[in-house]
Fold:
Amino acid sequence: MEQEKQQEVVVESVPPTGMKVVLREFKKDKIAMFSFIFITALIIGVYIASYFFIDIDEVMKVKLLQRYTEPGVNGYVLGADEAGRDILMQLIIGAKNSIYIAISVTLITSIAGIIIGLAAAYYGGVIDNIIMRIIDFFMTLPTLLIIIVMITIIPEYTPFHLILVISLFGWVGTARLVRSKVLSEARRDYVSASKTMGTSDLAIMFKGILPNLSSILIVELTLSFAGNVGIETGLSFLGFGLPPSVPSLGTLVSYATNPVVLAGKWWVWLPASLFILVMMLGINYVGQALRRAADARQRLG
Amino acid sequence: MWKTVVRRILVMIPQLFVLSLIIFFLAQKMPGDPFSGLITPETDPSRIEELREQAGLNDPLPMQYVNWIKDVAQGDFGKSYTYKRSVSSLIGERAYNTFLLSLFSVILVYALAIPLGVIAGRYKDTFVDKTVVLYSFISYAIPTFVLSLIFLYVFGYQLSWFPTSGTVDVGIEEGTLSYYWNRIHHMLLPAITYAVLGTTGIIQYLRSEVIDAQTQDYVKTARSKGVPMRKVYTRHIFRNSLLPIAAFLGFTITGLLGGSIFIETIFGYPGMGQLFVNSVLTRDYSVITTLVMLFGFLTLLGSLLSDIIMSIVDPRIRID
Structure:
């Protein structure tokens, strides 16, 4: 009886870990909570709408008579672009494409970054040196220009190529972060203990060290997702992202490079710009709340 | 100190070498060659073949690479296909425009970020601080091209406060006072846009620096000697955080180069960023190659600058 009571006390005083911390932080920070629900609903809504309710071939059909239809006229909720294509429909499909590419790039770069960073920090020595030289080199490349040049010289260019080219330069940041965190983690007792017990290196890295980085990785994942949305829409805006036949948020914004559209036809470019803006603010806000949750000194809750 | 600088410059050499290899490889993959610019319908194909042979384009690749590097070292970057003039003079002109805009932007960045950062740190958790933090969050999250377009739309087209493209109005005599004012007027909006985007890092760093400094011994000492709080901020704390802020200059330059592609395109400012986008669209490969190399070199210089300033500021990171 006495012991049971003591145990209860012990259990109650255990500091909250993992998802509980995140939940507590989000309960405390109403804007972060709202941003999270909003972004999730947005992504799910965009996917459902573009798969079940919109016929892409119908949307991308050129209807010259409907050229630059104003919002609210002829059933065009947000008006039409220079080829008479519905802006709202393009916005939804474009958002889906942009999100799809950003998620793919984030997944590829995170996996590559985690493996490279873990290997560098865990093995150290020559391997670490070589990887760090490569990372330093990538950090000083004019990335945007090289991405654009690569995209223009790829024959039979598809969205798949775009994902690969962006990923080629995206892993560096994650690898650096993971390496620096693993460096301090690898000196801990539990790692030495596992080593003495004969646990394989792979098991120590992925089952021992990696779970301890989960909170930092979630932050990194969120923020790099936001960054990748920015890169894809930016490239599409310049005309080097998704091919013109595939709607993208960036392509919609790029209609504004025509002064006539920018000055007089706000409905063509402004919704997509605001969409990008709101999405970036939301994702980044969630990322920052997660970062606070991951760092005990900055927590609100 | 000098040892560190020399070491750091020596590290740059292999980086430049690999960069040039990558660019050479990319250039090989691009269709066309330096003579594409000379081809007209009347050109005899055998004449082109002769020229190719003379220029060594049929040599083995390593030979071509060595020759290319030799040309580049002598400032010979070939001819532009669209502009029908030598790449070096074309880029020289554009580089001057970009340099002016960048200089102006950097001044604005620091003029905006230093007071905001210090004030936010000094009045931590007040309304002013929260506003500055919110501002730096938004400017961090917003993509360059979205902010540029919104600024251009609002201040350029709706309010007509600024011209919407170019470097100077037509018909203004060069050298007069109104000419210089007109040039600045054209640069203002792009520079402000860049400044708004570029302040985030400096503000956040300065803010946390000032907050940390408040509990440090040297500040307590100054306070107990009777130095007024205002002076502690301007003399003691600010001076201590000034040099690390200077180290941001390197990153700011790197950011400017990346941002120039968007900002110059949107504001119709004829600098290197706009030239790059146009050259890619018109497939002007000799210009593209040169610009990628120049941007790569400048990015390297930026990071070199940051590292050198950091090693002056913090002797612990010097390599011995």
Remarks:
- The CA atoms of residues 291 and 297 of chain A lie 11 Å apart.
- The interface with chain B takes residues 136-137, 139-146, 148-150, 152-153, 226, 230, 233-234, 237-240, 250, 253, 256-257, 259, 262-263, 266, 269-270, 273, 276-277, 280-281, 283-285, 288 of chain A (CB under 8 Å).
- Chain A has a mean pLDDT of 82.
